[in-house]
Amino acid sequence: MADEKPAVLFLGPPKKHILAGLEEEFTVHAVVHPKDLADDLVARLAPHLRFVAVGGPPGGADGALMQRFGKLEIVASFGVGYDNIDAQWAAAHGVIVTNTPDVLTEEVADTAIGLLLCTVRELPRAERYLRAGEWARKGDYRLTASLRDRTVGLVGLGRIGQAIARRLEAMRVPVVYHARRPRPEAPYPYFPSLIEMARAVDVLLVITPGGAETRHLIDAKVLEALGPNGILINMARGSVVDERALIAALKERKILSAGLDVFADEPLVPQELIDMDHVVLLPHVGSASEPTRRAMERLVVDNLVRWKRGEPPLTPVPETPWPPKRA
Ligand code: 8YV
Question: Which of 74, 132, 182, 197 yields a CA-CA distance of 20 to 30 A from 323?
Answer without folding.
Answer: 182
